[in-house]
Amino acid sequence: MDNNNNNNNNNNNNNKNINNNNNNNEEDIHMAKDNIPRDVDNNNLTKSTDENKEQEQVKRRLSFQNLDNHPMNTVSKNQAHNAYTFQAFDQKDVRTGAYPKLSIDLFGTSKEIPQIFHEMKQQIGEKRANRPSSPTQYLSTIQSSTTTVQKQQAKSFAETLSIKDIFNQPPPQSSTPASTSTSSTTTIGKGESNNAIVQGADVVIPPTKKEISGGEHTPIEMKPMGQTAELSKKDKTAAKQKASEYDVNEHELTLEQVAEKYTTNINSSDPSLSNGLTQSLANELLIRNGKNVLKPPKEIPWYVQLGKCFTNFFMILLEVAGALCFLAYGLDTSQRVNLYLACVLYAIVIFTCLLTFSQERQTGNIMKSFKNLLPQSCRVIRDGSETKVKVEDIVVGDIVMCQAGDKVPADIRIITCNGMKVDNSSLTGESDAQSCTVTCTDDNPLETHNLAFCGTLVMDGSARGVVIRTGSNTLIGKIADLASNTEQTETTLQIEIKRFVHFITALGITMGLIFFIIGFAVGIKPIQNLINVLGLIVANVPEGLPSTITACLTVTARRLSKRNVYSKKLESIETLGSITLIASDKTGTLTQNRMTVSHMWYDNTIVRAIENGGTIGRQLFDRTTPTCAALLKVGGCCNRADFDRLLEGNMERPIENRLILGDASESAILRLCHTIEDIEITRAQNPKVFEIPFNSTNKWQLSIHKLPNDQPQSTARILYMKGAPEIIFEKCSKLMINGKELEIDEKIKNDFIQAYEALGSMGERCLGFAQLLLDNENTVPNDMYDAQTLNFPMTGLTFVGLCSLLDPPRENVPFAVHQCKTAGIKVIMVTGDHPITAKAIAKKVGIISSPTAEDIALERGIPVSQVDDSEVKAVVLHGGQIRELTDADWDRVLSKSEIVFARTSPQQKSQIVENAQKRKEVVAVTGDGVNDSPALKKADIGVAMGIVGSDVAKETADIILLDDNFASIVAGIEEGRIIFDNLKKSIAYTLSHAVPEVAPFLLNIISGIPLAVTSFLILCIDLGTEMAPAISLAYETGEKDIMNRKPRVLGKDHLVTTNLLSYSYLQAGPIEAIISFLNFFLVLAHHGFPPHTLPGTTNDYFFEGCDDFLGFNSSYQVEALRQAQTAYFMTLVMCQFFNLITNKTRVVPLWSHGMKNMYVNIGLIIEAGICAFVVYTPFVHTIIESASVPGLFWAYPLPMIFCLFGWNEIRKRIAFDRSWKISSSLGF
Question: Measured between alpha carbons, how far is residue 1043 from residues 575, 969, 977, 1039 in Å?
Fold first, then answer.
């Protein structure tokens, strides 16, 4: 595969010419199919097995000279090309799944997509196999999948190698359709390696005699990873229908034919110079064909969503209870309370389901609005200029530009390809990235490599392509209807809450069954016993909890939307609250990503590039000096940024305000160069013939240019290079001083180091610039430079100078870093910049506040080795040192409180994350490029940048920062802690009324005391007075110390803990029950029924028609009991009123937090209002059999209620301010 990837340019031209000359060659192909095979020399066709194995083991890269001298070389000498493939990621990461498989979140999960794709591929293959003729029928045999790019069309393949010579015999018959083969794999049978025809780095294999004679040939079968299950007959039929609809033949057409079909401008001799569509035609096509969007997914209808609310476990429990109440009323119609209870239960179910449904819809709408905020744009060529347009505005015929990290915006026919590889795993289920080509490799459009499909991810390289299908007409659009799957997985937070709800429900049912049996045993009437059991179940179940949780999640989503944090799943926000370490990028995250060239170093002098350069005594640069002019020339030419010339009014703006297409560093250099000379003129005088873009592995960018016509022919080309200064300087042997080239000696090296350190110490990012004149000996004929063979000099360059770029820190980052430190979160910087620059920025933002070992050594005048490691709190590590770290070294480094990793590669970033996780750190990682995706996936929380982040990074990350601001991460951490805190408070508050609601039923069953509270009154508490206050806690702001606490320990600090249950069931609950019983007995005593007379009276007294008791008739007894029961209800509500207030905080005192949450204040008012309504409204008394309570009994419980309030505040202080033995048991 290495050979295939390295020198495949010639074959690419040959293959392309088959398409360009298919009319001329079609007859040859038909003749080849019908001809009798010629005699073929066995020496040219076969080789011994041993020699074959030996050749297969030797992987040698073909050089340019080998290609020139090879007898089978068919490359035209006047052909220019622009082929290169640079490795931007680790293949191991791809094989192990570190890179994401695209989830088609536009229409649900993609688990069925590979099966549908391969079914469609087979159907299309069978259809095309039955065609009368196909000029590309044998292309999969003679073409490799790893061909890259040619700028110009090559000669006809027939001119250099007759197809008849290769295919002088019909191909062997196979029972397997051609479409089922995997085009990315070349199958070489036994004894075939020597008779392969070399074309560049590709291999063309003539048939062996064994094949010609019909001998057995067993290809290697590649099974797609995604094909794990067979499709149903219905799905196969649907896939066949979609395959017939996806009628694509553009991969077989020449570039001229494609251009004619879509009325677009394609330069067939040099596709990179194509002009694309005109803006007016693009607008017309957009109106005619519609937006480039997929058909909306099949969403669950609202009535189905609402129905699911009625069928969850919680609601089913209440529905069954209501049905039992109807049954009880049917058994004894005199007990109208059962009818009322049943109606109320169903009203509760309806209300709760409607509220939950409403909250879920709001949450879903908020999350949808997040997706709309994410930038979705791509680069296109219109009117000959590059511009950015929204993906939805792409039209057929547009020429789009894709590069590593992008998502392919539509189905495209590739016209230039710079080593582009795409991740088709979302379609094929295969993990290996597929190389793209400009030539057709298979007549099946789903097999050929010169098509790229909408939604797939570009993993490496770049390419240009003509859009041939958009929207629902794309391949993924055809599959979308068949693959839609709206199933949603539950988050860990939802699972934990669900388990808690099941526990509470099971507890209620268990208690109900036990006491139902006890009730029968003690002789309670069946109907009354059933009512008591139902009341017991209802008392145990916190009916309002689902709505509270949903409200909490909705509130969090709203808060995040205001703070520019998009979480793909809300559970990620909850996990953020547990983060212990943040590994952050520097550029754009900690800094503003608004680069400005601040200083320059040339002629051994540091000068200012701007008026307010930030240094005293520096002169402004002199553009007239030869060295400065050369430096600006390198900066302008070795630069991929350019002004957006299609944006209306952009070129009329001041230079500093113009929109530039390119990264921040190159944009800053472009602005500086354009102020000296129009960048178009500079580049027109020095046309680019070859380029290797910057990547994080090489840390340099290279381009080769033509020189102006007045230059002598001996120096017809010039090589420019820019990148990391130390790397560029190593490749140089000379330094330009006053326009002259001097040999680099020790003094020049020291001067360079001093200048580099001086600029880096100011926190400025440095770039080095170099050049080399290529004479006739170093130039390559027809500019056929190759990035794999590097057939041009890479050493002996002339160093021109340095440019330093100022990227100021974001204003709120220092405070955010301080917040992280106080929250127990370690913030480390991981950057590709030089250690000096990284250290300077780290000091500015507060990541480093202590001296490093080098600083201590410099201050004391001692070697670094003599500095005691225990004194060092800060460390700055170069990427080169990371490779040599042992486990003990990692322990030492990661134990430091202030860490900066500089000059790191993406692979080292993953290594940093992995080693931190080994040390029990919960790691959040920020990233924006395709190379960051392994680290983003490996981290506990991956955080991608919403503005500059690549599509690959966004697909991998859990959190997306819409403003690329580090402070937004801190906001997410705070929200994660708040949501966890508020859920704890709400659950603790809700469970506190369980004991005082259950206790009356227990005493009634066990001792025969009249029931202290009815089931109706319990429902008035659970779904009346309690609902609004419980939900209002979701709106509670974070406590003052929320960011001063240590991070929560995952797997240990659960949502519902023993301490929380202890508070609700053993502390607040019993206190509230005692206070409520006290008022109950006081009311009965006030009516002449002392407490000691009450046991054993429940079956004989206190109901209509009973005997007189203590001289009071039945009506008086019933009225006294109703007043006592209402007093119990009233007292319990009063207790919960103050319990809510004291539960507004979990750690800090209430008086320090305040009552600023207006939702809680309104909830308290609603709670008091409902209580007064139930107590004093006459018609309510008739319905729920309650009674008005004298005002005196409002006052009796107050002293003890204040004791409850006081105990909770004392408990917090003991739990969180003291280190007593009991402290650990009181905090929750």
Answer: 15, 13, 8, 8
Model confidence pLDDT, tens digit, residues 803-821: 998 888 888 889 999 989 9
Other Cβ atoms within 10 Å of 358 Cβ, number: 16
Please tell me what DSSP assigns to residue 456. Answer: -
Q: Report the candidate in 924, 921, 920 with the shortest Cα–Cα distance to residue 937.
A: 924
The backbone region for 649, taken as left when phi is positive above 0, alpha when psi lies in -120 to 50, beta otherwise, is left
Instruction: Dig out the tokens for 800 from the structure.
Output: 């021109």
Q: How far apart are CA 278 and CA 117, in angstroms?
A: 34
User: In Å, what is the CA distance from 821 to each residue of 279, 872, 1224?
Assistant: 52, 18, 25
Assess contact for 789 and 64: CB atoms under 8 A. yes
Rounded to an integer, what distance in angstroms lies between the CA atom of residue 37 and that of residue 924? Answer: 65
CA–CA separation, 1057 and 252 (whole Å): 66
**What tokens were used for 325?**
């109440």
In single-letter form, the type of residue at position 764 comes to E
How far from the centroid of its chain's Cα atoms is residue 978's Cα?
23
The mean pLDDT value of the chain amounts to: 75
Strands (E), 325-425: 377-382, 385-390, 399-403, 411-423
SS (H, E, C) 129-198: HCCCCCCCCCHHHHCCCCCCCCCCCCCCHHHHCCHHHHCCCCCCCCCCCHHHCCCCCCCCCCCCHHHCEE
Counting every residue written for the chain, the total comes to 1228
Give the DSSP letter string of 1166-1198: HHHHHHHHHHH-HHHHHHHT-----THHHHTTH
Phi, psi of 221 (to 5 degrees): -90, 125
- At residue 136 the predicted structure's pLDDT band, cuts being 50, 70 and 90, is very low
pLDDT higher than 60, residue 647: yes
Rounded to whole angstroms, how far apart are CA atoms 856 and 846? 19
Q: Give CA–CA dist 240/242, Å, rounded.
A: 5
CA distance 1157 to 1161: 7
923-927 and 451-452 beta bridge pairing:
unpaired
661 has which bridge partners?
642
The DSSP result for 681-720, as a single string, is HHHHHS-EEEEE---TTT-EEEEEEEPPTTS-GGG-EEEE
d(CA 1147, CA 1004) in angstroms, rounded, equals: 38
Q: Given this model, what pLDDT does residue 363 score?
A: 58
- Nearest alpha carbon to residue 772 among 732, 718, 735, 723: 718
Where are the strands (E) in 576-729, listed by range?
Answer: 581-584, 596-602, 605-608, 642-643, 660-661, 688-692, 700-706, 717-723
Distance (Å, whole) CA 344 – CA 82:
77
Identify residue 229 by its one-letter amino acid code: A
Q: pTM for this structure?
A: 0.65
Q: What is residue 1092's three-state secondary structure?
A: helix
Residues linked to residue 718 through DSSP beta bridges, in sequence order: 705, 773
Contacts of 213 (CB under 8 A, 6+ apart): none
Q: Are 825 and 1047 spatial neighbours (Cβ–Cβ below 8 Å)?
A: yes
Cα distance between residue 1130 and residue 1189, in whole Å: 9
pLDDT in tens, 764-780: 889 999 999 988 777 88
Q: Which residues are known catalytic residues?
A: 585
Q: Taking the CA atoms of the chain, what radius of gyration do you get in angstroms?
A: 38
First to last CA, the chain: 59
SS3 content of the chain, % helix, strand, coil (to 5): 50, 15, 35
Which helix (H) or strand (E) element contains residue 670? helix 664-676
Rounded CA-CA distance 387/404 in Å is: 18
Output b/e per residue, 430-463; b: 16+ Cβ within 10 A.
Answer: bbbbbbbbbbbbbbbbbbbbbbbbbbbbbbbbbb
Strand partners, 643: 660
Contact in structure between 53 and 162 (CB atoms under 8 Å): no
